[in-house]
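Re: beginner question about structure tokens

> Can someone show what the tokenized structure looks like for a real chain? I only ever see the sequence side.

Sure, here's an example I had lying around. Input first:
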Amino acid sequence: MSLFSFLGAIEIGLIFALVALGVYISFRLLRFPDLTVDGSFPLGGAVCAVMIQAGYSPYVATLGATLAGAAAGYITGWLNVRLRIMDLLASILMMIALFSVNLRIMGGPNIPLINDPTMFTLLQPEGLEDYWSRPMILLVIIIIAKFAADWFFSTERGLAIRATGSNARMARAQGINTGAMVLLGMAISNALVGLSGALFAQTQGGADISMGIGTIVIGLAAVIVGEAILPSRRLVYATLAAIIGAIVYRFFIAAALNSDFIGLKAQDLNLVTAVLVTLALVVPNLKRMLQHKRLPEAPKSL
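And the corresponding structure tokens:
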């Protein structure tokens, strides 16, 4: 793998680390199977691209994309909490609706940002190539997002969201408004995904209606791979594991697709993803089985 490909994998991995954090919040903390991600990711890219082309600052456009993602997550939660629609079905309905919404926002299947300013062109230090500066800028954003998530979910409101996901009945008995916590958690989760979509559009030179296909699979794969690498129930390590999982996942994808001797091509991306996630699920079980076999048998009581 060339240095350019390596840095490209790190860059995409850092962008999808935000998706992994969002999926971790909905999937692990709230226990909410959220497919809205496949729609809120391109929604963030679409809003950001349209606002930049309309003359807004890239910072304002990125903030607008983050808020749009939060609104999408809030509506999914509202369908579940207020209209009593099953969580998975509510997210599927929102994902389908967002496909049309994104087309409406963009006015077509894609919007180029080739000659428009982006956050990365504004923040790029002089004399430093963009393929070096983009991962550095993204790393700073990820560190801020990670510590902000760690701080928020250790506050009283964040603990209420975690309690809602762990045991909603017990949380209600403690006086927690579980419906409001689901709405807030879903908004935060998809805000991170919308932010990720905005950053992806700015690094890839535009937004496309198909850029969200398979985003939920990538997010889940990153969370599962991260948990296999760094198994821990502490939130600080769990969010770190999601970030590491996203980077490792993209690195292995890039390594596999750039290995000519294997013969894999771009169309094998989903196959590589399935194999990688399967290994991440199976290896911890194999390790546990081997550890149990190595343990000495307890002496029999007389």
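Each token stands for a local structural state, so reading them left to right follows the chain. The two ends are 62 Å apart (CA to CA).
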